[in-house]
Amino acid sequence: MKQEELTITFYKIIKCGYYEGEDIKFSDTKDMLLNLLQWAKNTQSFVDTAILPNVDLEDSSNNLRNTYFIDLRSQSDNYLITLWNELPDVDGEVATLSKSKKIGDTTKCIKTKLPNNAIPGTASYFLFMPQHKCYATVCRKGRTNNNAEMIAYMQKFLQAYTPYCEIKEDGNDISVLGYKANPNAEIKKNITPCFKVSRAEDKDEIEFIKENCNNIKKILHKDIIRSDEKIKLDAGKTLLVLLGLKEPVNNIDDNRKIKYEIEYTPTKNELQNMIDKWCSESQDKYSDIGFSFKGEPAEKIHWLSGNISRGKRNLELEYIDSEIIEPTSLLASLNTCLRELIKEVNLI
After folding, report:
1. How far, in Å, CA of 322 to CA of 104, rounded?
2. Under 8 Å CB-to-CB from 12, ≥6 apart: which residues?
3. Statement: the pTM of the whole predicted model exceeds 0.90
4. What's the pLDDT tens digit per position in 85-108?
5. Phi, psi of 221 (to 5 degrees)
6. Which of 105, 126, 246, 309 could disulfide-pair with 200, CB 3.0 to 4.6 Å?
7. Given the DSSP bridges, would you call strands 2-20 and 134-140 parallel, antiparallel or unpaired?
8. Got the DSSP string for 152-181?
9. d(CA 303, CA 62)
10. Which residues contact 89 (CB under 8 A, 6 or more apart)?
11. Whole-angstrom Cα distance, residue 140 to residue 4?
């Protein structure tokens, strides 16, 4: 056992199940989780639980890591999901550089051969609270929460892998014919599976920003550019060109931080679109949008991240190995501080 700081960030579950238009027809969060557990138990092997494509969705700028199901535990009507998020390798090797490398020296990277059938990756944890219609990412210090992968994973599971899915298999290809509430029901093609979430935040502050939209004088944006995020990478290169670098910039590394501001007063619709986009996406802790208002000191910035329902806790953790936290002990530890934490972040 060792004590470790965890960051717990809450999200609201807007939709979960099968819908006809805006109306829920069947299933819910708890039902989805129990079906996920049963489906995972019935898969032939661990690798068969990877149901995400390793390429990005058309309307997103983030590449999704291949994601695998590890475990699901329940206690006091709360559910802890453990997933495995695959890290990229090249032909079964990972490359590393020495921390002592100097800029301009000839230090070469070291390639380490992975064991046969190994899947390099990191574990991620999600605490679902169906009774409150919310969940929380549980993140170790220095790690990403992989929330985007989890959201896409649940959406894909609802789309093609639950007992409600009527599918046609052709080799490795799966075609969804429709959905039905039970085995004896008729297949319906106008049913849409949906797992939609948003950040949980302090609505009073959000309302303040919206109510004072006409007084916004400046918008600030902080973000992180990674080499595998094409849209953000292209934007970062453009900014460098505007700074006077005429030659194409190709060596932007992972985790390159940028910050820019623009004097602009958005319309109410534009402001709402910015808030909705920021709330729905899985943002890095650094990524943020801020607003400066007329009549307030220039240094006064209303950052959206100031409204996130997020807390930190030092918990005694037990590990299965060097990477994966033992799920039952983690869930028990989270449950002991959950009531206090929910009150602290004004979640409900």
Report:
1. 35
2. 133, 134, 197, 198, 199, 200
3. no
4. 988 776 778 777 777 777 778 888
5. -135, 125
6. 309
7. antiparallel
8. HHHHHHHHHTSTTEEEEEETTEEEEEEE-S
9. 23
10. 114, 120
11. 8
pLDDT in tens, 257-303: 788 899 999 999 999 998 888 877 655 567 789 999 999 888 888 88
**Pairing state of beta strands 288-293 and 173-179?**
unpaired
The CA distances from residue 193 to 34, 179, 218, 346, in Å, are 16, 9, 39, 30
**SS3 for 249?**
coil
Question: With pLDDT > 90 as the criterion, what percentage of the chain qualifies?
Answer: 45
Nearest residue to 15 via CA among 187, 171, 191, 166:
191
Structure tokens at 40: 């995972």
Every domain of the chain and the residues it spans: 2-86+122-200+309-344, 203-307
Match 């170790």 to its residue by tokens: 140
Q: Token digits for 116?
A: 């046969």
CA dist., res. 191 & res. 108, Å (int): 55
CB 19 within 8 A of CB 192: yes
Q: What is the spatial distance between Cα 96 and Cα 78, in angstroms, rounded to a whole number?
A: 39
